[in-house]
C-alpha cells in the first residue's frame, strides 16, 4: 500500500485557481465525509490554528484537487469540535460535539446538493449532550454510541456506554435496549458499519485507560458481541481514525497511555478477526491524533484519505494524504431507496446488479464451516445457510434481456421449487418439467456439498418422499390461500424467446399447456406482489407452448424443511 501527500490548491468565487494552500487550514476534531461516490470531500468544524472552534464547510474536488468554500443557506450549527458527521445519501447529519465550554446535543443537516443547513423537528428520547462519541449508519438508522459529557451537577465528566438510534426519515430518537456483551463506557473511539453490524474499536475509558478491544452490534437483534482478535494485535489507543472498506477496517494514528502518538496503520479483517500491521511505501503522515478520514469510491481501487489532526506539541495540522490500498469492494445497495420501490422495480434493480452481486452471499455460510472470531448471532436471511463456494457458469444475457439467479430448494416428481432473495425479501417460485429431471437432481444430491457437508446428512433427503407439484400447490392452498384466487389473464402471458440456463446441467423441460393453466387457481398471490417468469425449452422455443413460473412473495413457513439441493439457475427474460 502506498501513501501519497497531496499538493492542493484553492478556488475562489470566480472559479480561478490560486497558489497552493492548506484548504480549510490547520485543525483537529473536525470531520471529513465523501459525497458523490468520492467526487467531493466535505470537511466541517474542528478546532483551528486561531485557537477556537469553527462551523465552516470546505469542499475538496478530488478530480481537480482544489478546495472551495461554498456560500451556504439556512442557519448553520454553532462552531464545534469532536462532533460526529454521517453521510446519509446527499446529506450530512451532524450531531453533538463541544463548543469549547459545553457539550452539545443538537442535530443539524446539511444538504450538499443545495448547500443548505436545516434543523429538523426531533421527537423521542435523544442522547445527552456529549463529545467524543461515535456514529454509524445502517439502512435508514443512525446509531450514536458512547462519548463523554458532564454530570447533572456539572462538577465532573461523565462517560457513556448507551446507544441511541435516529430514524433518518421520521426524525424520531429511540434509546436502544441491547443485550449481549456491550463495550465499556468510553470516548475518543471509532464506530464503523458493515452490512447489518456496527463495530466499535478502541478509545479511552473512565479510568483514563486506553483500549484496543473490538465490539460489534447486530443491528437487527440489538445484541452486542466481542471479537476475539488474532494476528498482529493493534496496541491500545484513543483519538485514532478508522476508515472502512467493506469488511476491512483501517485504523490510523491515535495516542497511548505513555502519551506517545502513533503514525502506524492497522487493518482488521472483521470476518476473521485478524489484525495486520500494514506495510506502506511513500511519504506518509506524521504521528497525530484527532484527524479526519474517509474512503473515496470504494469500488475503484480503495483510496483512503486523511486530513489534519494534532501533533505531540498540541499543534493543529493541515496536511492531507491518500493511502492507496488496491482493495476493491462491492457497492452497497441504498436501503432507503430500495424500500420505496415496487417489487417489480426492485427486481429490475437486482437484475442490473446481478453481474456484481450474486443472489447468495459467499461470506455468509453455516457457522460451523467458517472460523469466525466472534460468536455468531442468529439471522433471518436464508442465504446465511448457503454454501460458501458455488461455481456458476458465466452467462451473458442477450441484448434487451434481464437475468436473475435462484436456487433449487426442492425436487418434485414433475418440477422444482426455487428460492431467491431480492433486496431483503424472500421470493419463491416453481419450475415445471415434463420429464423426471427432478429425479435426476435427487440422485445427484449425494454429491452436492452444502456448507462443506453432504446435503443428505443436512436435510435427511432419503426420509423425504418426492411430492408432485400439484401436491405442493394444494398444500399452499390449504395453508390459507383464497379458494378463488386466480391470476389476471394478462399475467399468464409468456415470452416464447425466454429460456432458463441451469448451472449444473440438470434437465429442465417445458411444461405442457395443461400444467400451465392449472397454476392459476392453485397459487394464491396478489397482483402487486407477483412476478411471472416465462420458461421454455431453449432448443426449440418456436414449437413449444411456454409455461409460466410464478415467483411469489411470502414469509417462510414455520418448520418448513427446505431441501437445499444447491443448484443455481439463471433465469432470462
Mean pLDDT: 71
CATH homologous superfamily (4th level) name of the largest domain = Kelch-type beta propeller
Q: Give unreliable regions as ranges.
A: 333-348, 353-397, 434-466, 476-564
Strand order across the largest sheet: 39-42-34-35-36-41-40
CA-atom Rg in angstroms = 27 Å
Overall domain count: 2
Query: Which term fits the overall shape?
Result: globular
- The top level CATH class name of the largest domain: Mainly Beta
CATH topology of the largest domain: Neuraminidase
Strand-residue fraction? 35-45%
Distance between termini? 44 Å
Helix content: under 10%
- SS field, number of helical segments: 7
Number of strands: 42
The CATH architecture of the largest domain would be 6 Propeller
Largest sheet: 7 strands, antiparallel
Structure report:
InterPro entries: Kelch-typ_b-propeller. Keywords: Kelch repeat, Repeat. By secondary structure, this protein is mainly beta. It is built from seven helices and 42 strands. The protein has two domains: 2-324, Neuraminidase (6 Propeller); 342-572, no CATH class. A hairpin with a 2-residue loop joins strand 35 and strand 36. The protein is globular and about 80 Å long.
Which descriptors apply to this entry?
Neuraminidase, 36% strand, Kelch-typ_b-propeller, mainly beta, 9% helix, repeat, kelch repeat, globular, 573 residues
Amino acid at each position: 500500500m502506498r501513501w501519497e501527500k497531496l499538493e492542493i490548491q484553492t478556488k475562489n468565487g470566480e472559479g480561478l485557481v490560486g497558489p497552493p494552500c492548506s484548504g480549510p487550514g490547520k485543525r483537529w476534531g473536525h470531520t471529513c465525509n465523501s459525497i458523490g461516490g468520492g467526487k467531493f470531500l466535505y470537511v466541517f468544524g474542528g478546532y483551528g490554528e486561531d485557537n477556537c472552534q469553527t462551523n465552516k464547510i470546505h469542499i475538496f474536488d478530488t478530480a481537480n484537487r482544489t478546495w472551495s468554500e461554498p456560500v451556504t443557506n439556512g442557519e448553520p450549527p454553532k462552531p464545534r469540535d469532536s462532533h460526529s458527521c454521517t453521510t446519509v445519501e446527499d446529506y450530512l447529519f451532524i450531531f453533538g460535539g463541544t463548543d469549547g465550554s459545553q457539550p452539545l446535543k443538537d442535530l443539524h443537516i446539511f444538504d450538499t446538493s443545495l448547500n443548505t443547513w436545516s434543523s429538523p423537528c426531533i421527537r423521542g428520547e435523544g442522547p445527552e449532550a456529549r463529545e467524543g462519541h461515535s456514529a454509524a449508519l445502517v439502512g435508514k438508522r443512525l446509531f450514536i454510541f458512547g462519548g463523554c459529557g458532564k454530570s447533572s451537577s456539572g462538577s465532573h465528566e461523565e462517560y457513556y456506554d448507551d446507544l441511541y438510534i435516529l430514524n433518518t426519515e421520521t426524525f424520531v430518537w429511540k434509546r436502544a435496549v441491547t443485550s449481549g456483551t456491550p463495550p465499556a463506557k468510553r470516548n475518543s473511539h471509532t464506530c464503523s458499519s458493515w452490512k447489518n453490524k456496527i463495530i466499535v474499536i478502541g478509545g479511552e475509558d473512565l479510568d483514563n485507560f486506553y483500549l484496543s478491544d473490538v465490539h460489534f452490534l447486530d443491528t437487527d437483534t440489538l445484541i452486542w458481541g466481542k471479537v476475539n482478535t488474532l494476528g498482529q494485535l493493534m496496541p491500545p489507543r484513543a483519538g485514532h481514525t478508522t476508515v472502512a472498506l467493506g469488511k476491512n477496517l483501517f485504523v490510523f494514528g491515535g495516542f497511548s497511555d505513555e502519551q506517545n502518538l502513533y503514525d502506524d496503520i492497522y487493518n482488521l479483517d472483521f470476518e476473521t478477526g485478524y489484525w495486520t500491521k500494514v506495510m506502506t511505501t511513500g511519504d506518509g503522515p506524521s504521528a497525530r491524533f484527532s484527524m479526519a478520514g474517509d474512503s473515496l469510491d470504494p469500488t475503484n481501487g480503495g483510496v483512503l484519505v486523511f486530513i489534519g489532526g494534532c501533533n505531540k506539541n498540541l499543534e493543529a495540522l493541515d496536511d492531507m494524504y491518500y493511502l492507496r490500498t488496491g482493495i476493491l469492494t462491492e457497492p452497497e445497495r441504498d436501503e432507503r431507496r430500495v424500500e420505496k420501490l415496487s417489487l417489480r422495480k426492485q427486481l429490475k434493480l437486482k437484475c442490473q446488479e446481478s453481474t456484481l452481486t450474486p443472489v447468495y452471499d459467499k461470506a455468509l455460510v453455516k457457522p460451523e464451516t467458517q472460523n469466525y472470531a466472534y460468536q455468531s448471532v442468529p439471522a433471518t436471511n436464508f442465504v446465511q445457510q448457503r454454501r460458501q463456494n458455488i461455481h456458476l457458469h458465466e452467462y451473458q444475457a442477450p441484448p434487451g434481456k434481464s437475468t436473475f439467479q435462484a436456487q433449487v430448494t426442492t425436487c418434485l416428481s414433475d418440477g422444482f421449487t426455487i428460492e431467491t432473495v431480492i433486496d431483503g425479501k424472500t421470493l419463491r417460485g416453481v419450475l415445471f418439467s415434463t420429464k423426471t429431471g427432478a429425479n435426476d437432481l435427487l440422485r445427484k444430491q449425494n454429491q452436492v456439498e452444502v456448507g462443506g457437508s453432504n446435503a443428505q446428512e443436512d436435510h435427511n433427503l432419503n426420509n423425504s418422499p418426492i411430492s408432485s407439484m400439484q401436491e405442493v400447490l394444494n398444500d399452499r392452498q390449504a395453508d390459507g390461500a383464497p379458494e378463488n384466487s386466480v391470476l389476471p389473464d394478462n399475467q399468464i402471458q409468456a415470452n416464447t424467446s425466454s429460456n432458463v440456463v441451469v448451472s449444473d446441467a440438470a434437465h429442465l423441460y417445458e411444461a405442457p399447456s395443461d400444467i400451465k393453466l392449472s397454476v392459476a387457481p392453485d397459487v394464491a398471490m396478489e397482483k402487486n406482489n407477483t412476478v411471472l417468469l416465462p420458461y421454455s425449452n431453449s432448443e426449440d422455443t418456436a414449437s413449444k407452448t411456454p409455461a409460466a413460473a410464478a415467483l411469489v412473495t411470502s414469509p417462510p413457513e414455520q418448520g418448513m424443511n427446505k431441501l437445499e439441493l444447491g443448484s443455481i439457475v439463471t433465469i432470462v427474460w
